[in-house]
Amino acid sequence: EIVMTQSPATLSVSPGERATLSCRASQSVSSDLAWYQQKPGQAPRLLIYAASTRATGIPARFSGSGSGTEFTLTISSLQSEDFAIYYCQQYHNWPPGSLTFGGGTKVDFK
Amino acid sequence: QVRLVESGGGLVKPGGSLRLSCAASGITLSDSYMSWIRQAPGKGLEWVSYISYSDGTTYYADAVKGRFTISRDNAKNSLYLQMNSLRAEDTAMYYCARPGAYPDYAFDIWGQGTMVTVSS
Q1: Do B44 and A104 lie within an 8 Å CB cutoff?
Q2: Rounded Cα distance, B38 and A1, in Å
Q3: What is the distance in angstroms between the Cα of B25 and the nearest Cα belonging to chain A?
Q4: How far is A42 from chain B (nearest CA, A)?
Q5: Can you give the pLDDT at residue A40?
């Protein structure tokens, strides 16, 4: 099973600042990597797929990069609505097999 | 409007059973690798199971293999998760989710979730 590790666990940022979140895979997942945002009491929302493609309706301040085992989600200028938990997920060579998520990074107010 | 609506969650004793449902509108479940994903309180996301759109092949996470069964009813455009021999560690919000089209199998549509609590 591919293990996804996110860092940091918590990122304290002020509105307007840049946030950089990391995700590492235990083996190469090529570009088969997605990022999700989850707010309290809500289902996750897809932000990025294929490592760097924004999903429909996602603002341009969200960008994804990386391939292989190292990935980054960047929020260029944090807005109040961006304070949430962010998860990465790999879907390399799926299906068949299992899918795995990272443990999440909580972005909160500095 | 595309929508997934889960139901069937609740409080159940260890060893008990529950059947979750996921009703779809605006999409056809039999066109996708529909999945169940769960989230224990205060924890991260864990993929549980999927069912193939083409031949109904199923696959399960090791944590639920042999206890959970995923199925679908194409006529009702609904997805199900039969959960048997439930354990305290199965306590979670359960989401049904649809991945996008090949090759980008990120989950672009999620339901609102249904809560399962396993406790005596």
Answers
A1: yes
A2: 18
A3: 17
A4: 7
A5: 96
- pLDDT tier for residue B54 given thresholds of 50, 70 and 90: confident
Secondary structure E strands in B1-120: 3-7, 10-12, 18-25, 34-39, 45-51, 58-60, 68-73, 78-83, 92-99, 107-110, 114-118
Tell me the C-alpha distance between A45 and A55, whole Å.
Answer: 9
What's the CA gap between A16 and B72, in Å, rounded? 46
Q: What are phi and psi of B111, to 5 degrees?
A: -80, 180
For chain A, what is the mean pLDDT? 96
C-alpha–C-alpha distance, residues B1 and B66, integer Å: 35
What is the average per-residue pLDDT within A33-37? 98
Q: Which residues of A touch B101 (CB under 8 A)?
A: none
CA distance B44 to B19: 23
Q: For chain B, how big is the Rg over CA atoms in Å?
A: 14
CB < 8 Å to B105, chain A: 32, 91, 94-95
Give the CA distances from residue B17 to residues A37, A82, B13, B50, B85, in Å, rounded to whole numbers and listed in that order: 31, 38, 8, 19, 6
Full 3-state SS string of B48-79 = EEEECCCCCCEEECCCCCCCEEEEEECCCCEE
Only one residue has tokens 């999903």, namely A55
Residues 51-70 of A with CB under 8 A from B: 53, 55-56
B25 bridge partner residues: B3
